[in-house]
Amino acid sequence: MGIFFKSKNKDEYLDKQRNKTRLIVIGIFILAIIAGSLDYPALWNKASDYINNQTGIQIPHFKNVPFRLGLDLQGGTHLIYKADLSDIDKEERQESMEGIRDVIERRVNMFGVTEPIVQINKSDEAYRLIVELPGVKDIHQAIEMIGATPYLEFKEERSQQTTEQIIEQQEQGNEEYENIDPYFKPTDLTGRYLKNAELAFDQTTTQPYVVLEFNETGADLFAQITKQNVGKRVAIYLDGAPISVPRVEQEIAGGRAQITGNFTIEEAKQLAQRLNAGALPVPIELISQQSIGASLGEKSLNKSLEAAIIGLIAVALFMIIYYRLPGILAVIALAVYTIFVLAIFKLIPVTLTLAGIAGFILSIGMAVDANVLIFERVKEERKKGRDKLSSIDEGLKRAWPSIRDGNLSTIITAVILYWFGTSIVRGFALTLLVGVLISMFTAIILTRHLLKLTTKS
Question: CA nearest 117: which of 127, 126, 104, 128?
């Protein structure tokens, strides 16, 4: 009787473990279906349309979110500028570069460029500005727009009657009024008269605001403008766009003014940077330009995808031929891994470059490496006489230190590359990092449970 109950308890335990394993695998595959629908929404949308038409149930569509392609895959313009900071104090150089970067980013947005990249690169004491404009074909227009000096100006509010007249003429298509601002008119006060802009805090409320300081000529002009516009608004424009529209409460003399509002600290700091960049632009010189055609980018993309597919097929064939059933399970886990990684690339989103795709392909090798370690350890445990289920658990325990150490060293390397690298290196590091993390999940969790689910004893 004792033997009977012992065997029965063991069977019940094994059934519970198998049910738990089955639920985990089903859950992972449900997530894979959702992730796959994000990768390729057309398949889900066609199925949902069919079900909706047949049953009347309104299953929602997946939004088609395209992959974000980098300059080398999409084509576009790559520019490198050298900044002349000889007249700027060392402690202010980084802030000056950030101000210029902010201005150029807003200039780039005028192109309607999708996901432009504007980065500061420092080597020793030399500062460079790297500008990547995916999809921009006219390199000369890009150079002209980016290289122009940021222009800061102060404008007075027009009367309501004048505003209505200008808008009416614009609506009628009068070309003389086409480029006239209907709400504000220019003054003689521009960024050339602004000495400095800095972040400050109200001592009572601790609310951040921006302090402006003009030179002697600018102080006189500002006093005259504020005297004439008490109770009205004076707009501050940078590159033709308003960045602040404060209302004048009284005449302001002495060459100092405050821009107040419901600013966060970051917003007030950014406004001060923009004002300083407009008033004291850092001279930049174009030292490198490169135009990448869309056809070359498309060719690079096709070659990269072809390499990825060939790599996946080669790895899958090796695993199946050498390990048979465990190899098939590893290929299934590898397919789930690929689906998850591509979905994460869309969700973050990751800008895919040639280097980024190389990082992804390399992470495929890391994913397979973990499976190989597990399978080899399981084979060793089977040779020692263990049953199949205990061999899987023990094999995973023995393989885990090697998997952990190998992947951890890769993760550390990827983080360092991302932290200190430029755009191309960072793309490689990010895709490698994401791939390695997901590969650990599929190898440790999915492959292990698939092995248990297909093992009878």
Answer: 104
Q: What is the pTM of this model?
A: 0.64
C-alpha 260/C-alpha 273 separation (Å) is 15
pLDDT tens for residues 2-16? 444 455 566 676 678
State the architecture of 2-66+293-453 in CATH terms.
Up-down Bundle (1.20)
Show the beta-strand stretches assigned E in 84-137.
117-123, 126-134
* Beta strand spans in 51-116 (E): 68-69, 76-83
List residues bridging with 204 in a β-sheet: none
Domain spans in the chain, listed from the N-terminal domain onward: 2-66+293-453, 76-290
How is domain 76-290 classified at the CATH fold level? Gyrase A; domain 2 (3.30.1360)
H helices of 286-422, in order, are: 294-323, 325-347, 354-383, 388-420
Q: How far apart (Å, rounded) are the C-alpha atoms in residues 162 and 199? A: 35
CA-to-CA dists, residue 127 to 145, 163, 361, 423, angstroms:
20, 45, 33, 16
d(CA 179, CA 375): 71
